[in-house]
Amino acid sequence: MKTIIFYLTMLCVVSFALANKAESQNMKANTGGGSPDPQLSQKDNDYLDRQSAVFLDSVQAILAKYPPVLKEGKERGYAKLLLDAVFHEKFAAFRKSAQDFYHAQNGKLIQELEGLKVSSGARVWKVYDMGFIVRTSSVTMAFDLVSGITSGSKEFALSAGELVRIVKQCDLLFISHKHADHAEKAVAELFLQAGKPVISPAQVWPQDSIFSRILHPKPIAEKVHQIKLAGNRTLEVICYPGHQGKSIDNNVSLVTTPDGITVAHTGDELNEGDFMIDYDWMDQVAKHHKVDILMPNAWTMDILRVTKGFNPKLVLPGHELELGHTVWDRLPYWGDDAYLELTYKQLKASKYPVVALIWGESIKYIP
Ligand SMILES: [Zn+2]
After folding, report:
1. Which of 43, 186, 206, 274 has the fewest Cβ atoms within 10 angstroms?
2. Model confidence over 273-307: pLDDT tens digits?
């Protein structure tokens, strides 16, 4: 009997100790200190790593099968929902799968740029944020080209080598305004070193030695500036005097290429509250120009009115998933219109063809 009691007591002690050990391990797993998100445990971080990898694999599989088209099917919508899920996690850009996805997408973009000639119309690529590249038969233009360093992760951002290859394929750079998700000095420097024009408002790097090498055409509605490019080519450029709120000057560029394609890029244009003076010229653009492609910031308050002002044949919105912004402010592909007080939904339901590209993707435009 005594032996049995001793045996049972020992069993209790051992199982209690084991249970205690499991519990303390559990406690450890639930506390913070992990990487990249220090508020989560390493186990939690590892789970998010695995989830990000699986979701982004699915995105790549969907995008490979369903490239951008004028009337996008629901499959691309699902891919964008997965992107919204992955990149609305604070530390997304610090996860290897996210970095690999971004570099793979832009790796494809670089290869296409290096190999692809446009014989008519235009091809438009989205790099990151409001960074677009437009190629026609006569010219390749970059707008607000940045590396993605605003994400805070050097590993996420495009490397100097990747940027050099992109810049080599472009003829000039337009910078809409001074914010870091649109203006990156290292990128502008690459253009200037290659003898290619950079155009920006005077508020961009005014105290820097780079300033004197940048072109600052006076932003006046309907004033046409002739921008000379190598090979005796001339671009006709209007810098509309846009704003992001009262204090930030924002060039809204309207460019007509030598082969007659007209594109417009709005930077971070914002008419808001009691400061709506930009509608004075914006509502009138289509009266003066036949606009082929408009690249508006998708988060601008009344994107439908902006679009009507330009009356373009194709709308390619940008600025989704800016990882330098806090989570709620990383404009999702699904919209969040009600909260953000936008008219994006109305635009998508309108007569205008709207294609929201993903990093590295492109679409062909035929007039
Ligand atoms: Zn911005």
Report:
1. 274
2. 888 999 999 999 999 999 999 999 999 989 999 99
